[in-house]
């Protein structure tokens, strides 16, 4: 029969692992929020500095044509700031995803091992012939862990493709020439 000590020990181990997992996840999320706050502060500072500089340049325009030229010359720097922000945001999101996926994968693997071990212990006291049921349970646990690993891998590939797309868009934006309005100065 199942020993109460075995169940009590398994329950304590499981609860301890759950608390450790929740703590790790919370720490990761707090770290991510700190990074996002820092990024947003940097973006706000850069945007404010750029806007002040732009306003000063626009106020110093001597005629409407100069005003239009100054305005159009400011598009690229603003786009560069936006793309830098998006790149950093993407890096933070990707890093957080990788960290959470690693923590979760480690937890899934650990739980699978603990359940398999518990099933082995339970199997020792079961009547003959019930080993096939325990083997089926172990196989189901292994399959679930493998399925989770595949989902994690697919998600990571999608994130890498998103990062690649953002990098390509950033590169393309950086190499675009600034267009003037086509009017010649008289």
Written description of the protein model:
By secondary structure, this protein is mostly helical. It has one domain. Helices cover 87% and strands 0% of the residues. It contains 4 helices and no strands. The chain has helices at residues 4-59, 64-73, 75-124, 131-175. The longest helix has 56 residues, at 4-59. The chain is elongated.
**Quick one: biggest sheet?**
none
Counted beta strands: 0
Q: Report the sheet-strand fraction.
A: under 5%
Query: Please, how many helices?
Result: 4
List the secondary-structure elements in sequence, H or E. Answer: HHHH
- Low-pLDDT stretches are 178-186
Helix/strand class: mainly alpha
Radius of gyration: 29 Å
How would you describe the shape? Answer: elongated
User: How many domains, as an integer?
Assistant: 1
Give the fraction of residues assigned to helices. Answer: over 70%
Question: How many angstroms does the end-to-end distance come to?
Answer: 99 Å
**Average predicted local confidence, pLDDT:** 82
In short, what is this structure?
With 186 residues, the chain is mostly helical.
What features would you highlight for this structure?
186 residues; mainly alpha; 4 helices; elongated
What order do the helices and strands come in, and which of them pair?
Layout: H1 4-59, H2 64-73, H3 75-124, H4 131-175
Helix pairs in contact: 1-3, 3-4
